[in-house]
Specification:
Blueprint (H helix, E strand, L loop, with lengths): L13 E6 L3 H6 L7 E5 L9 H6 L1 H10 L3 E6 L6 H8 L6 E4 L5 H17 L8 E6 L2 H5 L1 H5 L7 E4 L2 H7 L11 H14 L2 E4 L7 H14 L3 E4 L5 H7 L4 H19 L5 E3 L2 E3 L1 H19 L7
Parallel strand pairs: 1-2, 1-8, 2-3, 3-4, 4-5, 5-6, 6-7, 7-8
Antiparallel strand pairs: 9-10
């Protein structure tokens, strides 16, 4: 299966992770302009504060929904306290349930089964809750296609940063060279599985480094990215929204190619690039993305 351009997850550019037990941060998060806000119950929430964090889900999600923000929660693996996380927050109706440290399809199958049971118990529409596995290890990347195919609830997956670096035994750098192959391999696996790949977060706080990281992300094909620093949401949205220059180039390419076809040719040249059907369709996809983002009530914010 190849990547499906009509998957509307591609319009969700920024996925902001917020400490799960910090009510102030949870309620302030919509002001960042993030497309999706994630109540983070794993690394951002100490184990002793998770019970408190779970009680905040309903209030936080209602505020996010009221402002047109997509709601998400990241639960721990079921091998630890993930099932307790899930049982506590499902009544708050998260649109997406993320699970950290997914390495094999069986983890998702178990998560899917638990969500289905809770949807029935809570009188929620069965199948309405989406699953977004978080892939944070070499084993997880190698098993990405199997994970993606393990549940019909999966339309997107996310690749991690810090846990991935540790798993690889690599040294962390601002340049992120150590993550270039995992990010590229993950994107390829997601495209083959037909799900949207969400890029790993830039975990430093400087805007210059974040800009460089976004250039890499865009250059290899990502349309969505995790964010852990609220101050970088606007930058992320801007980078993942087609610019006026890109839109103008795409329109020029489409016009030149369609004119060539009228004249019986199968290619045209624009700015030194030979436009054939693949690049013609790529230009049309960029324009379609531009139009869809422009029509969203709260987007593009970047």
């Amino acid at each position: 299966m190849t990547f499906l351009p009509d998957n509307d997850f591609t319009l969700l550019r920024s996925w902001l992770f917020v400490p799960g037990a910090d009510l102030s941060s949870l309620l302030d998060a919509p002001s960042t302009g993030a497309d999706v806000i994630v109540q983070e119950l794993e690394d951002f929430t100490p184990a002793e504060r998770r019970p408190q964090a779970r009680t905040l889900a309903a209030e936080a999600y209602n505020v996010w929904r009221s402002q047109g923000i997509m709601t998400a929660v990241r639960v721990n693996p079921f091998e630890t306290c993930g099932l307790d996380d899930l049982r506590s927050v499902m009544a708050a109706r998260p649109a997406f349930v993320m699970m950290s440290k997914v390495e094999q399809a069986e983890q998702v199958v178990e998560l899917d089964r638990a969500i289905t049971q809770l949807e029935r118990e809570l009188n929620l529409k069965v199948g309405s809750t989406q699953i977004v596995p978080n892939i944070e290890s070499a084993r997880g990347i190698v098993n990405s296609i199997a994970v993606a195919n393990s549940s019909e609830r999966i339309k997107a997956m996310l690749v991690g940063t810090e846990d991935m670096v540790v798993d690889l035994g690599a040294d962390r750098s601002r340049e992120g060279t150590e993550l270039l192959y995992p990010r590229s391999r993950f994107l390829l696996e997601c495209a083959a599985a037909g799900v949207v790949p969400i890029d790993c977060p830039y975990t430093f706080s400087d805007a210059e480094g974040a800009q460089a990281d976004m250039r890499v992300s865009r250059s290899i094909g990502y349309k969505a990215k995790a964010v852990v620093n609220p101050g970088l949401v606007e930058l992320t949205n801007h980078a993942l929204t087609p610019s006026s220059k890109e839109v103008a180039i795409a329109r020029s390419q489409i016009g030149a190619f369609e004119a060539a076809r009228v004249n019986g040719d199968t290619r045209a040249k624009v700015g030194g690039l030979v436009i054939e059907y693949p690049s013609y369709f790529a230009a049309k996809r960029l324009l379609e993305r531009h139009e869809k983002l422009r029509r969203l009530p709260l987007a593009p914010r970047g």
